[in-house]
DNA sequence: TAGATAAGTTAGCCATGGCTAACTTTTAAA
DNA sequence: TTTAAAAGTTAGCCATGGCTAACTTATCTA
């Protein structure tokens, strides 16, 4: 039986993976959740700095769909993590580390979105799903997305 | 400029999506996070019931990579949510609703894994990434995965 | 330039989902 | 059948990331 046929299993046949491997997978997901906040913020801050020259908490709150105290709290966490530079009541800027992270996230985001679009998914859905998916895409999988995308683009 | 070329943007060019659409996307991700626990548990419980005839907290804890009090707490939440049936110190079983959710999750899981494998990703990575990705795949995207998979399987 | 409005912060609340320590119940073995 | 080990629960802790209410600071405008 080849790998690919795994999708053809009967609905009730259990897949018995090694417990430790499974546990490691779940641990990876939990770790990804811990970096999601930081990634979402720096990515958005980078976008806003490009568009406006600075990132303001109001706009961050609006675009993330959260209230401003939440932004204040999370920005102070990012500052503690050395990703962000800022003085109270002033706009927010990225440190070198923050800029680096933001760029990596944005590259990844674009690849995921472009990949989903190449499957024929509409733009709204691609953007929305990418927002959740991107945090769980390993470098291996990202490379595979890139590769498939290139193949699609040349073959079309 | 076509959709697909979006990946070819310069690293510093901002993509200005509508703020409300962006906010909605993040809200969707936050909602997905809220159902993740339930989905992971019922999926695993269904697997264990198949393999062993019942699901025991020890094994759930082992496979999720968490400690047993965490399992106890979460199982009681699932019970309150009507997904699980169980008496203290006894094995755990699924209600009809739980079984239904579990099957949907497992179907989705298998499609995501098979799809990643079809891109040439190794099995360990596919399983690990799928664990995180699956919770953020809309029905639209899942259909696109299925479609791409069929195309791949027939064309190979 | 004074005062109103908008923006940002602080304090304190809540649920989630981890954890350890200590206890109870069940199971298995001597 | 008694007792030791394994399994499960309870209580209470922690960090995360939401929220509202109340306050402070900055900005804009009359």
From TrEMBL, chains A, B:
It holds the Pfam family Fe_dep_repress. The keyword Acetylation does not apply. It is found in: Cytoplasm. One of its GO terms (cellular component) is cytoplasm. The keyword rRNA-binding does not apply. Its main location: cytoplasm. SMART domains: HTH_DTXR (SM00529), HTH_MARR (SM00347). PANTHER family: IRON (METAL) DEPENDENT REPRESSOR, DTXR FAMILY, TRANSCRIPTIONAL REGULATOR MNTR. In the presence of manganese, represses expression of mntH and mntS. Up-regulates expression of mntP. NCBIfam families: PRK11050.1. This is Transcriptional regulator MntR. It comes from Yoonia ponticola.
């Amino acid at each position: 039986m080849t790998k690919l046929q795994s999708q053809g299993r009967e609905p009730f046949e259990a897949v018995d993976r090694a417990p430790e491997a499974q546990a490691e997978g779940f641990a990876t997901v939990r770790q990804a959740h811990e970096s999601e906040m930081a990634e979402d913020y720096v990515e958005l801050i980078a976008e806003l700095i490009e568009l406006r020259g600075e990132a303001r908490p109001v706009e961050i709150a609006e675009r993330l769909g959260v209230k401003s105290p939440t932004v204040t709290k999370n920005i102070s966490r990012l500052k503690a993590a050395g990703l962000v530079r800022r003085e109270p009541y002033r706009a927010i800027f990225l440190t070198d580390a923050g800029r680096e992270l933001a760029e990596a996230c944005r590259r990844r985001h674009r690849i995921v979105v472009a990949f989903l679009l190449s499957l024929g998914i509409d733009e709204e859905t691609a953007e929305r799903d990418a927002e959740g998916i991107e945090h769980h895409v390993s470098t291996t999988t990202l490379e595979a997305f890139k590769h498939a995308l290139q193949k699609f683009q040349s073959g079309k």
